Amino acid sequence: MHLTTFADLGLRTLMILGDLDEGQRMTISDLATSINASANHVAKVNARLVELGWVTAVRGRNGGVYLADGTRQASVGKILRQLEGPGEVVDCEGGAPCPLVYRGCALRHRLADAREAFFAELDGDTIGDLIAKTPPAGSGGKETLRPLGLPHVPGRSSATA
């Protein structure tokens, strides 16, 4: 199972916002910098998170975004189901439709079951659990930022990646 960039950014956003002190807000620009993503992508993700009720946005000079009440207790699986949407693991009916789709291909159904099992496994963790299990910034963990979607290459710093 591979998460969409949208869902990945959504989870990163919730974890970063969950690490803020009570009453603190974060601008989209600062949030984008902290999760190493473009401000445009982060703005779209935050619009959806606000729509779903996981994040609260405040407009204006002292505005920003912060976790909505109850988000820390939300299951990661539930949030991912909402961010990923109802799509399938493979596109059986896309540009070059698979001829097996019309025969009730078992693979399509098994992949749907596997996708749900993936989400179900994450139902046991909440956003608060993930935040609590993640060492705070500056605690000695490796904090090398790299562009989203690119694997870490040992021996290369993020400045040269």
Automatic annotation (TrEMBL):
Keywords of the record: DNA-binding
Family matches, as Pfam families: Rrf2 (PF02082)
Example of a GO MF term: DNA-binding transcription factor activity
DNA-binding keyword on record: yes
Region (Disordered): 134-161
Known cofactor(s): [2Fe-2S] cluster
Keyword tRNA processing set for record: no
GO cellular component labels: cytosol
Protein name according to UniProt: Rrf2 family transcriptional regulator
